[in-house]
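for the recovery benchmark. tokens below, seq after
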């Protein structure tokens, strides 16, 4: 029997020895002394997903032939983020690439769980809208059937049957409310992503020597690596190149107060470990914020589903009860 598509997708990486974070796995190999071609080759040998195995093997072959690194990572089916592709295709040494990948790939994007709940809410509201719209067309038919069978209908159900269109304002209300909710959640997710980029920035600066930080920052201050804060990073780089003091560059640039404080503290203490600790604390803050939003979304899902099932159950059982009582009267 042919394997079903859903099962093939679910079990693709079930027993893979490669971490779910492919960039972190490759970064570890590079930090252990492998060159980029060998690291990709080892990843292709240990990953169970056939598509990823083929893509990794092909990238390793292209690099081994000496072709342009950017050409090796131009296939976006490869499970690598744009910032990871950029670093792997850069002119940095393999060891430096591994250090960067391993450090800024440690943190998990917690917004994915929120997006999952958002899909549940979206599906529920869409289903509710369909049910209510269909009800506005179906309920009058119940009225006609009941009258045709000489089934007595109480005044409330008759009003519901003959005025099914009253559900349409409710549909519009649900759509309008969901749109507002979506805008608020989108703004919240954008803030989470921005904070995540700041945590990655601290991890990145903590992983390189102080003498190399400006050059690395100049390299990664682009839309591929930091799409939400790259303009601020470019301003820092330009100010540093113009001879401005480092402590002045970190103040009032638009980053969060946490990030600016850790950057300044690391500069004055001349200790890179402070940046690493700052990245860990910011990631913890992101995780707690995400969990609180997930709890809120769980409550919203339960309320919406409860209201939906209550409306459906009342309409269904009240209709059946009326028809059956009429039949056996």
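predicted aa per position
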């Amino acid at each position: 029997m042919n394997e079903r598509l859903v099962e093939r997708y679910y079990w693709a990486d079930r027993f893979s020895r490669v971490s779910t974070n492919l960039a972190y796995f490759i970064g570890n190999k590079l930090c252990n002394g492998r060159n980029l071609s060998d690291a990709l080759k080892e990843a292709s040998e240990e990953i169970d997903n056939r598509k990823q195995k083929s893509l990794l093997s092909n990238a390793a072959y292209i690099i081994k032939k000496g072709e342009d690194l950017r050409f090796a990572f131009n296939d976006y089916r490869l499970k690598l983020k744009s910032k990871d592709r950029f670093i792997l295709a850069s002119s940095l040494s393999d060891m430096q690439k591994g250090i960067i990948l391993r450090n800024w790939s440690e943190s998990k994007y917690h917004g994915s769980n929120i997006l999952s709940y958002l899909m549940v809410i979206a599906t529920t509201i869409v289903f509710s809208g369909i049910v209510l719209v269909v009800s506005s067309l179906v309920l009058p038919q119940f009225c006609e059937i009941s009258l045709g069978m000489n089934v007595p209908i109480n005044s409330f159900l008759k009003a519901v049957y003959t005025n099914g269109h009253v559900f349409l304002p409710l549909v519009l209300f649900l759509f309008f409310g969901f749109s507002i909710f979506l805008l608020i959640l989108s703004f919240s997710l954008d803030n989470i992503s921005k904070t995540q980029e700041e945590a990655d920035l601290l991890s990145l600066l903590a992983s390189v020597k102080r003498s190399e930080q400006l050059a690395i920052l100049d390299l990664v201050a682009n839309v591929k690596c930091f799409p939400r804060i790259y303009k601020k990073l470019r301003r820092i780089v330009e100010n540093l190149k113009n001879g401005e003091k480092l402590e002045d560059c970190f103040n009032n640039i638009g980053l969060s107060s946490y990030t600016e404080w850790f950057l300044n503290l690391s500069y004055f203490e001349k200790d890179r470990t402070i940046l690493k600790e700052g990245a860990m604390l910011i990631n913890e803050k992101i995780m707690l914020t995400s969990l609180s939003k997930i709890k809120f979304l769980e409550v919203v899902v339960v309320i919406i589903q409860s209201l939906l099932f209550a409306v459906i159950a009342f309409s269904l059982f009240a209709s059946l009860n009326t028809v059956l009582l009429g039949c056996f009267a």
